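Why predict the complex rather than its parts? Because the way molecules touch one another can change local conformation, and only a joint prediction can capture that. The input here totals 657 residues.
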Amino acid sequence: MLSYLLKRVIGLVLVVIAVTFVTFFMGYIAPGEDPVSALLGNHQDPTLRHQLIVQYGFDQPWFVQYGHFLLNLAQGNFGLSYFFQGTPVSELIGPKIAVSLELGLLAFLISLAIGIPVGIIAAVRRDSATDTLLMGMMLFLYAIPSFVIIPFYQVAMVFLYQHNLPNLPVAGWGDLTSVIAPALILAFTSMGYYSRLTRTVMLEVLGQDYVRTARAKGVSERAVVYVHALRNAMLPLLSVIGPSLAFIVSGAFVVEVFFAIPGIGYQSVQSIPQRDWPVLQATVVILAVAVVVMNLVTDIFYSIADPRIRITEGG
Amino acid sequence: MTFESHAETVAQELDPTPSELEPDRILVAASTSPLRDSLRRFTRDRRAMVSLGILLFLFIGSFVFLPIYEHIGGIISVRSGFIHIGPSDYHNPVPSVLGEHTDEGPSVIHWLGTDDQGRDLFARVMAGIQVSVIVAVLVVGVLDVGLGVLFGVLAGYYGGIIDSVLARFTDIVFAFPGLLFAFLISAIFGGFADQQFGASGRLILVSLALGITIWPQMARYVRGQTLQLKNQQFIEASRTIGTTSVQIITRHILPNIASLIIIAATLDVSTTIINEGVLSLLGLGVQPPGASLGRMISDSAAQIPYYPWEDLLPAITMIIIVLSLSFIGDGVRDAFDPRSKD
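Output of the joint prediction:
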């Protein structure tokens, strides 16, 4: 177990270094006006210019700059903003991370809470009308991107509002009513993914001998499905948490922009026209590391739940 | 994924027993080429064929009908005393000319109405579909299938340095979740591409950004299949009779993995069209006044309380495209996957 863990952590460190290097390098070779001139604007004062160059470390060769970038990252420091002079990026995006985390976590929980039960119901009532209907709906949710669903949601809410019917806000962030819709829409893709996978896995497990044995010895159908079958079906589900998180992370950009949610996705989209690369770099690094770490955590859980993994992979 | 059944067929063709040399037997063997078989299964799938028809209608129609439609619009508008609205105006509105026709409903001149700047919605949707098609062809046709298959086969067949370079590159690209890598590239180099190469430069940049993140997946997939095939008996057999590596790759390996490439490429077309939409609506894809489905959805979102149709039209178009692709993908998988023979 320990050597397996060690191997995985080393792999993770290498991946994180690769991500930071690519991200740093992109900012380093970014074409267009140099950030110092942009910061100075109409006051191109040579002394101030020199000060800024030193403050931002642009006088150093690239590998020294990258070293600083990496060292700062390790301390949770993402450098200084190019747009808001002298403001640390961490100050800009710090409060946004909490919002994005809340949105992402909520969407993830919703996708599990709806996706898995729907998959179980469809598997238990295999080939019935319920099965066809549920799976059709889930296929739709899986295939249709959120930016296409959101306009329909907004049209519906505007209609309800105009007719004085109960409705949810179309944008903003704060109280529970404004949180439901974005989290649900963000959850749709993963929900479709989970429900379809749950159905497939459950059908496979329900067809196995030990399930037949359990039925034969008189275990109630409910216990067969939820105790005997579900426990073994959970394993494959655990392994797709990683990809599903990646879906949620990239989907969050769209949802945050459409709903004007003050998260890091929205913030980084706003920083594109400002050419504020450090904000963009910080966002990319944070999200990539978050997904990589979650993948590792999932794998560790997976290896605890299924000892065969450690034996074959851990050596 | 096994190729055993197919490999056996090929091996039998290489080493035919006398009875199989009878004319009838050869005819039978020729008519059951796996690819042709799959194609026949695919054409029998009604849902996939209808989807394919709709998709081809939209894709080809957007290229063929847009110039015709602009011409029709022009003639009618001149005859009915309106200002002539030429092709360039659909993309590059002059407010003083088009301003008086903002937010119109469907009419003889503007079949699906106009947007908040007086631009013809039908023309813009067709232009948007064109963008989706161009990006899909560049990303999937050129980068994904071109680079992915080339490097995948080379890495799988020869191994060595190509294999290690591919593996490292793939690891780096896969470390970025979802669209983030493409997002970073188009954000940082977008302005530069606009300045240097104009609108088509931006389109190529977006395609490159999406392509870079998608082809390693195809390459890894093709590499795995090639590796598996390489050690099969019929390949060894052809090597012993002196077939060159190039011939083995083109005559034996590529035809054997063609079905899997088709399955993966179909899925990638859908991913690419959606991702282009996402980049565009985040402001990283096609720049105004150009039209892209994603951009149209985000730009007219403000119009929803007053003219919801302007936002729903590109959204519905996107749904039709994505659902059709999803059904085609299902059909292709059923027809081309060697495991699902009926």
